[in-house]
Write a structure and sequence with these properties.
116 residues; mainly beta; four-stranded antiparallel β-sheet; 54% strand
């Protein structure tokens, strides 16, 4: 059974940093894109950042470029999202997801709250 488990969310002041982790298990994720998405209250899901499992493709939403960094540790089967210079608009539930040709998997989310 596939599991994606996010951690690292919390309450942070504006201008601060957090690092989210996504521990993946239950299958190999070769040829999968690992993505971070977020959903603020009352708003639609929003793509944040993505990385191929091989690491040869990394891509970001325009609003996080220069502030967030996505990475992965193959040995630990873990994907990270380093978030710097956080602001109140970054407040949301953050989800890790794995997208393959035939399947997609989602974690349960971790809450990030940025206080101004």
């Amino acid at each position: 059974q596939v599991h994606l488990v996010e951690s690292g969310g919390g309450l942070v002041q504006a201008g601060g940093s957090l690092r989210l982790s996504c521990a993946a298990s239950g299958r190999t994720f070769t040829n999968y894109d690992m993505r971070w998405l977020r959903q603020a209250p009352g708003k639609a899901f929003e793509f944040v950042a993505g990385i191929s499992w091989s690491g040869d493709r990394i891509y970001y939403a325009d609003f996080v470029k220069g502030r967030f960094t996505i990475s992965r540790d193959i040995a630990k089967n873990t994907v990270y999202l380093q978030m710097n210079s956080l602001n109140s608009e970054d407040t949301a539930e953050y989800y890790c997801a794995a997208f393959g040709d035939d399947h997609e998997y989602w974690g349960q989310g971790t809450q990030v709250t940025v206080s101004s």
